[in-house]
Specification:
The structure holds 2 protein chains of 2 kinds. In chain A, 40% of the residues lie in helices and 14% in strands. Chain A has 15 helices and 13 strands. In chain A, β12 (433-440) and β13 form a beta hairpin. Classes of the chains: A alpha/beta, B mainly alpha.
């Protein structure tokens, strides 16, 4: 499989045209995606027309970005003008955005070609890409297993070679966990470094768009394209887009923390060994590793689900069946139209989270649940600040297991939520993290680990990931 | 203390959420939410007295643009996705006499 940067180099050297590249990937999608179900829609004609236009500009010597001419696919919770955006929900049946998400404009300005929209858990609520209206995503390594979620389509499409790069979104691990399950690389950027304008909101204080690719260089190049301030998103507080310079060879002055208690219970033995071996690889590259106990661990999932569901119940109140999306046809009154459209339009997990959010925000329970969760969040942010006085970054597993069988956890929401134990604290604290593959379990399923840095330390994380790649390749 | 989510509370949450669930979903959610809510109550063990709540990851929250008037979407575009509409407005079911709970 060609990486995105290799592809753009070939295009620049005129070994391959943008149109040929687009045709190649569309053929792969058409041949392969029935098995994986990573795509909700493919925009063949539009992509070919754009490819032709971009190829003309390449011919004229224009360079719009290092990824010019490269095909990409976008998670279907990111708005694309004139192209249906479904959030994998019946609720958005027939909805076609009249505007582009800022990141989509940026892809186009960079001369990248969007081929299609990627499958996911409905409204990004889930960890297995099984809750969507358009069917489950299957893991390309073993199609009887989940691709992870909620950006399961993004990770599966890249892992299957159906697309060289993809955009996903990460609210509690939704980029990192599917990357780990499918053996690809992902970056969950700092909150406020990539515009959320046009991202259909799930939990606004946690949501962040990020990148999925075959390696860290591709992901970093794409992050450089999509990051930067945006007048349309006031919470996008970064000054200017990230720039990733030359490759760092050694990590001699890097101090990396390893949360000892993450490896003590509830973690699969193969995952544990593989992530600890990755930590050794950092030592070989010159970094020092120091163990510590991650505080508050048992309180993180409760705090996350309270905050995420509270924000979801508010955000999803916009789906009323009147302005856009699914409408129940026989409602006699306005309130019936709201109630019936929402009850029929939303799937079960979405309704579960809306009800839970309404509960934690309701009078009588607010203090014991929502307020308490916000206080826990404050304590967590303080702990991370303290940790980053000691460490440049933290190395941790992404998920306690590798990809499990489809259907295995879907009827047990609590079990599913527990799978987020290592990922959600990053979102609560707004931190950046990269997920990288580091090996395989005894059944041949990929294992991933993550590097967590302090806010806006993406350059350091990318440096570390690049420096350790040769050591990891040798182990894998 | 174990909180019990019963049918009455489920109905209350349905009203707050503008949902009308079929009976089988209601039963399932009652049992799911009982498990989940009692798991979330683990936070009660944590001493948070005197801790200020944090609803956002950073202290710096907004990067505002200059306060200039800019064009917004035209009506035609806003109405484009509405399931029922005229040329100028959304059509909704009768609102008079509808008791919005």
């Amino acid at each position: 499989m060609k990486s995105a940067l290799e592809l753009s180099t070939a295009i620049k050297a005129k070994k391959l045209s943008t149109t040929e590249a687009v045709n190649d990937y569309i053929t792969k999608i058409e041949k392969n995606d029935a098995n994986i179900n990573a795509f909700i829609s493919v925009q063949r004609e539009q992509a070919l027309a754009k490819a032709e236009a971009v190829q003309k500009r390449i011919g004229a010597g224009e360079v719009l970005s290092p990824l010019m001419g490269v095909p990409i696919a976008v998670k279907d919770n990111i708005s694309t003008a004139g192209v249906a955006t479904t959030c994998a929900s019946k609720m958005l049946k027939g909805y076609t955005p009249v505007f582009n998400a800022t990141v989509v404009d940026k892809l186009e300005q960079a001369g990248m070609i969007i081929l299609g929209k990627l499958n996911m858990d409905e409204f990004a609520m889930g960890g297995s890409s099984e809750t969507g209206f358009f069917g489950e995503v299957r893991n390309p390594i073993d199609t009887s297993r989940t691709a992870g979620g909620s950006s399961g389509g993004s990770a599966a499409a890249v892992a299957a070679g159906e697309i060289p790069l993809a955009l996903g979104s990460d609210t509690g691990g939704s980029i990192r966990q599917p990357c780990s399950f499918c053996g690809v690389t992902g970056i969950k950027p700092t909150y406020g470094s990539v515009s959320r304008y046009g991202l259909l909101a799930y939990a606004s204080s946690l949501d962040q768009i990020g990148t999925v690719g075959l390696n860290i260089d591709d992901c970093a190049a794409l992050l450089a394209v999509i990051s930067g301030a945006d007048e349309k998103d006031s919470t996008c507080i970064i000054d200017k887009p990230f720039e990733f310079g030359a490759v760092t060879e050694r990590l001699d002055n890097f101090k990396i923390g390893l949360p000892r208690n993450y490896f003590e219970k509830g973690i699969d033995g193969d995952v544990k060994n593989s992530v600890l071996a990755a930590a050794k690889a950092f030592e070989e590259a010159g970094a020092s590793i120091e163990e510590f106990d991650m505080p508050l661990t048992e309180y993180i999932i409760p705090a996350y689900y309270i905050i995420a569901c509270a924000e979801a119940s508010s955000n999803l109140s916009r789906y009323d069946g009147l302005k856009y999306g699914y409408r129940h046809e026989d409602a006699a009154t306005l309130s019936q139209a709201y109630r019936l459209s929402r009850s029929e339009g939303f799937g079960l997990e979405v309704k579960r989270r809306i009800m839970l959010g309404s509960f934690v925000l309701s009078s009588g329970y607010y203090d014991a649940y929502y307020k308490k969760a916000l206080q826990t969040r404050a304590l967590l942010v303080k702990e991370y600040n303290r940790l980053f006085e000691r460490y440049d970054m933290i190395i941790s597993p992404v998920a306690p297991t590798t990809a499990y069988k489809l259907g295995e956890n879907i009827s047990d929401p609590l079990k599913m939520y527990m799978g987020d134990i290592y990922t959600v604290s990053v979102n609560l604290a707004g931190l950046p993290a990269v997920a990288l593959p580091c090996g395989f379990d005894s059944e041949g399923m990929p294992i991933g680990f993550q590097l967590i840095g302090k806010a806006f330390s993406e350059n350091k994380l990318v440096d570390a990931a690049r420096a350790v790649q040769p050591f990891l390749k040798r182990n894998g | 203390m174990n909180l019990v989510i019963d049918t009455e509370l489920i109905t209350y949450l349905e009203n707050l959420s503008y949902l009308t669930l079929p009976d089988d979903e209601k039963k399932g959610l009652e049992s799911d939410l009982n498990g989940i809510v009692n798991f979330l109550a683990k936070l009660n063990e944590l001493d948070t007295s005197g801790v200020e709540e944090r609803s956002h990851p950073f202290d710096e929250v907004n990067n505002f643009r200059d306060d200039e008037v800019l064009p917004s979407f035209v009506r035609e575009k806003i109405l484009q996705n509405a399931p029922h509409k005229t040329e100028e407005m959304l059509i909704v079911p009768k609102t008079v006499g509808d008791e919005l709970e």
